[in-house]
Amino acid sequence: MSAPVKSIASQINWSALSAKLKPDTVLALTNFHRRHQELSKQILELKEQKTSIDFAHYKSILSNKAIVDEAEKALSSFKPASYDLTEQIRIIEEQEVKAVAAAEKTAKKINVEMTELNDLLKNIETARPIEQVTVEDVALAIPELDATVQKMIKRGQWTVPGYYERFGEFKVGF
Predict the structure, then answer these.
(1) Measured between alpha carbons, how far is 84 from 86 in angstroms, rounded to an integer?
(2) pTM here?
């Protein structure tokens, strides 16, 4: 991971972010973070381990000194293979760029939704109570409702389709 990405990642408030994400996303992030911490700890432990071999100790213990000499010669002549990782690093950096772009796109989308929801909430909070709303107010708010009612009256249709299924039949017992 590049240095700027590491510094940005260290500035993230993970608890606040977790509160805004879906539970499965939070679980995936938590598992990823835990695995990263485990691997970092394991790398530190491996770096702290003693890496030198005391061949003199083995020569004093073992009777076959030729095997120890051969192992020492093999170890001293060992050269680890080196691999060109530029292609893999380039692919990882491309994926990082795509992930950041997708995150920014999602953030913009969420900000738009939050603005719309805040406007809706303001509208709901400033609306009149239902007890104060009149039939004329409803007719002004929904002009097509008046035409629908007139059409139903012309047809002789005095019930609203689906009303009884939804609310049941109201009967007053005398």
Answers:
(1) 6
(2) 0.39
